[in-house]
Every structure is written in structure tokens, then in C-alpha cells.
Design a protein that fits this description.
Blueprint lengths: L2 E4 L3 H13 L8 E4 L4 H10 L2 E2 L3 H7 L2 E4 L3 H18 L2 E4 L6 H5 L8 E5 L9 E7 L5 H12 L2 E5 L5 H28 L4 H21 L4 H8 L6 H10 L2 H21 L2
Parallel strand pairs: 1-2, 1-4, 2-3, 4-5, 5-6, 7-8
Antiparallel strand pairs: 6-7
The structure holds NADP nicotinamide-adenine-dinucleotide phosphate (NAP).
The site of NADP nicotinamide-adenine-dinucleotide phosphate has 28 residues, from helix 1, helix 2 and helix 4.
Length: about 270
């Protein structure tokens, strides 16, 4: 089975490296890559033992599964020119374009084309993406499993109802930036108090990692855990109440809503 990628930027690089190097479950010789300049595709192909193609048409000709890895606004420019090639080869189509719905995508392919919408995140670079996917009615169970296998090489994969996909895009996608921001702000506060940045960031990241494991594996929800950390009249409660007085939770909800609105906006734009 052959896998084609149109686009060879940040996300496709992480996926192809995961497929060929991570668990090693996919062979580079079965992967076909192209990009606008072809330079990035060539570099990635060399790194992963994959094949480079001069055009997207060539990628489609070779592939049983085609992964659309260009920016969302580029899709509308390239898909009309690729319609005949898709109709002739009829591969399974996988899109990682943020905000582009199954309904939007189906307009560019023959009726009954199997289409899978996938949302990985940048932690894919170290095999730690939280990836969401949904598929249309023409994707078989086997095909869905195949796509899950591809994205399992870069982290965890969850099937998400398409009606909840924008929500997932905030929680599983954009929120990585929120987490980076939280860690950087905390580490900078430690710098202000006199600790070197590198050490502060290391300690902050380890604490976030430990706290995430506690929520995932410890069997307790965050609020009971917060109560356990806050001794009466102690130090931590001072920080928790200061965060609340500063609008920490309300600001997070606002950030969530802003990303959600933008994601839905991209989906509606043709
Ligand atoms: N980055 C993330 O964190 C992230 C997370 C989730 C989803 N995504 C989705 O992943 C997709 C790619 O994002 P990215 O961050 O990887 O973007 P990127 O690094 O800018 O890569 C875009 C790729 O598209 C190629 N390209 C542009 N026009 C093309 C054309 N006409 N034909 C063929 N290839 C073309 C570019 O070629 P050149 O290399 O030659 O310029 C480049 O390799 C987007 O749809 C995005 O929504 C990204």
C-alpha cells in the first residue's frame, strides 16, 4: 500500500518521520512526497527513504491513501486542478487542514470518495500529538484503522464526532500554545525571583507533566487535587486565589471561545 503527501512542511515532516522512524511500521519506499518548491519534499524524502514527486498529480497516481498537508487556504487553489486525477485513481483522502469540514472537502472529490479529517498537534514532532479524527460514511472500518495506525506513530488518536471537531481543535490543537505560554510565564516569574530561566523552565515543564499524569492516571479530578495542595492559611491558596482574582479561568474560557470562533470561520470560508 502506498501513501502520498501533498505538502512537506512542519506537520507532514512530523508525520512522515513518525511513520518511518518512530515505530518503524511504514516503509519509506511506500511513501510519495511533493511540495510547492519540491525542495522540502526532497529533503524529507532523503531523510526518511521516501520517494519525491515533481507534482501533486504524480503523488496521486502512485498512492492508495493521499494526505493533504497544505495550509487550509491552499486547498481551494489546488484541489480543482486535481479532481480528474482523484477520480481516476480514487484513493482514500485524508485532510489535516484546520477548520476544513468533511462537507467542504467532499465537494472536490467524486461521490462516494472516502474522506478522513484529522487534526494532529505540533507535539507530533516528538511522538506526543493528541490527534482527533472523523470520517465520512464511505470510509470502511479497515480504512479508518489504517489512518489511526498512521497517526498512532506520532502520539495518541481519538475518534471525534464531527459536530465536536472544532471543540477538539481547541482542546487538542490550539491549547498546546496555551500550555507553552503558561510554562513560559511561570518560568519567567521564577527568573524575576532569581532562578536561571533554563532551570526554571525544566522544573515547570516537569511539574506540568507530573500534574497531567496525576489527572490521567490518579483517578481524581483537578478540583479535589487543588484542595489537597491548598493547606488552610498556607502558601498555595494565596496563588490560587490570586489567579482567580486575575481572571485566570475566565480568560481561558475567552481564549477557548476565540479559537473556536476562528476555527468555525475557516470551515465556512470557501
Ligand atoms: N503546524 C501545526 O501545528 C498543525 C497542526 C494541525 C494541523 N495542521 C495543518 O497541517 C497543514 C500544514 O501545516 P504546516 O504547519 O505543516 O504548514 P507548512 O509548514 O507551511 O507546510 C505547508 C506545505 O505545503 C506546501 N505547499 C504549498 N503550496 C503547495 C502547492 N500548490 N502544491 C503542493 N504543496 C504546496 C509547502 O511547500 P514548500 O515547502 O515548497 O513551501 C509546504 O511544504 C495545514 O493545513 C494545517 O492546518 C498544522
Amino acid at each position: 500500500m502506498n501513501f502520498g503527501f501533498i505538502g512537506a512542511g512542519n506537520m507532514v515532516s512530523a508525520i512522515v518521520k513518525g511513520m518511518t522512524r518512530g515505530t518503524g511500521s511504514f516503509a519509506g519506499e511506500n511513501i510519495f512526497l511533493t511540495s510547492k518548491s519540491v525542495v522540502s519534499a526532497k529533503k524529507l524524502a532523503e531523510e526518511c527513504g521516501a520517494n519525491v514527486c515533481q507534482t501533486s498529480l504524480e503523488v496521486i497516481e502512485h498512492s492508495d491513501v493521499v494526505i493533504l498537508g497544505v495550509k487550509p487556504n491552499v486547498l481551494a487553489a489546488i484541489l480543482p486542478q486535481l479532481q480528474q486525477a482523484f477520480a481516476k485513481k480514487n484513493p482514500l483522502v485524508v485532510s489535516i487542514a484546520a477548520g476544513k469540514t468533511l462537507d467542504y472537502l467532499r465537494g472536490y472529490f467524486p461521490e462516494k470518495t472516502g474522506i478522513v479529517r484529522v487534526m494532529p498537534n505540533i507535539n507530533a514532532k516528538i511522538g506526543a500529538s493528541t490527534t482527533g479524527l472523523c470520517a465520512n460514511e464511505y470510509v470502511s472500518g479497515e480504512e479508518k484503522q489504517l489512518v489511526k495506525d498512521i497517526f498512532s506513530t506520532i502520539g495518541t488518536v481519538a475518534e471525534i464526532e464531527e459536530s465536536q471537531f472544532s471543540i477538539f481543535s481547541v482542546i487538542g490543537g490550539a491549547s498546546v500554545a496555551f500550555a507553552y505560554l503558561y510554562m513560559d510565564a511561570l518560568a519567567r516569574a521564577a527568573v524575576k525571583a532569581g532562578m536561571p530561566k533554563k532551570q526554571a523552565l525544566q522544573l515547570t515543564a516537569e511539574t506540568v507533566l507530573g500534574s497531567a499524569k496525576m489527572v490521567l492516571e490518579g483517578g481524581e479530578a483537578p478540583w479535589p487535587l487543588i484542595d489537597q495542595v491548598c493547606s488552610p492559611g498556607g502558601t498555595t491558596i494565596e496563588g490560587v486565589t490570586a489567579l482567580q482574582a486575575g481572571g485566570f479561568e475566565a480568560t481561558l474560557v475567552k481564549a477557548f471561545d476565540a479559537v473556536l470562533a476562528k476555527d468555525k470561520g475557516i470551515g465556512e470560508k470557501k
